[in-house]
């Protein structure tokens, strides 16, 4: 009996310590969850007079969407970042952690598209979350940025296989809005790229005698993926990507701690950090399920043979999410006033966080030409 009481006593002490630790962590997170963007300060702690650090939920073409705008000097050029996924926003904290520091040389607009991330709203009908609608939203936002900051044109960067396509269609439709098109992780032909990604995943799995991954790949079958009794189209994409990521992982700096930094980021409220981003991943990326099943026909080689602005492509040579060989073939065939191809040796599907210094250098020396 004494032994039982002793065990119970120590169990309660341990449980109390765990609960106390969790409460302290939650308190720290709560304190750092004002929802206000981190300001740009000088050495004396004063706000830089011409800086901007804000976010807002604005209505674009009748649909609520989140934009975050950050920059040390509002006189700098405007850079609109178009995220991929689809449905996977790029939060400012990611660029901050990587050390790219684009906010030093641009006023950067991070756009969370309709149905994605903090722009999610269950009142938005699925039928409105289409590539055409997102492109029109982006053009409306581009005009808004031009007018707000009194610029003749802005720069646009498309990321991954959603963002590069959306941005390319935007530039094709209204080239007069843009100084240049920048693509990173370029998806030029989704169908062809997915075939090569599948082959890479299967080849690596067989090379490593990874029977679990081999069986998963056999289960989903070769692309184009179709829904079956065991998985949906979206789930098939995710299975393949997880295996690709296993054998071609994005190489992050050991100090790159996204989860810790996100929780301590004042730009997000307590609710946004937990309810929208942690507890509800299915609702955080709803656009992915809607767009992935219909995006297989995405083909820039066919649809956009020409862009009437300078083009810069930044691609990892080991990117098997958006296959580099397909991206290069499109780049070679693309007609543009000028174009430059930047290959990152040993880079994968996140060269901006893998090689931030080179990424920033390209922006300063090549794109801005400083």
Automatic annotation (TrEMBL):
Gene3D superfamilies documented for this protein: alpha/beta hydrolase (3.40.50.1820)
Keyword Membrane applies: yes
Transmembrane domains' residue ranges: 7-29
Gene Ontology terms: biological process: proteolysis
Molecular function as annotated in GO: aminopeptidase activity
Keyword Protease carried by entry: yes
Enzyme nomenclature, EC number: 3.4.11.5
Entry keyword set: Aminopeptidase, Hydrolase, Membrane, Protease, Transmembrane, Transmembrane helix
Domain of life: Bacteria
Name the UniProt record assigns to this protein: Proline iminopeptidase
Provenance organism: Algibacter lectus
Taxonomic lineage: Bacteria, Pseudomonadati, Bacteroidota, Flavobacteriia, Flavobacteriales
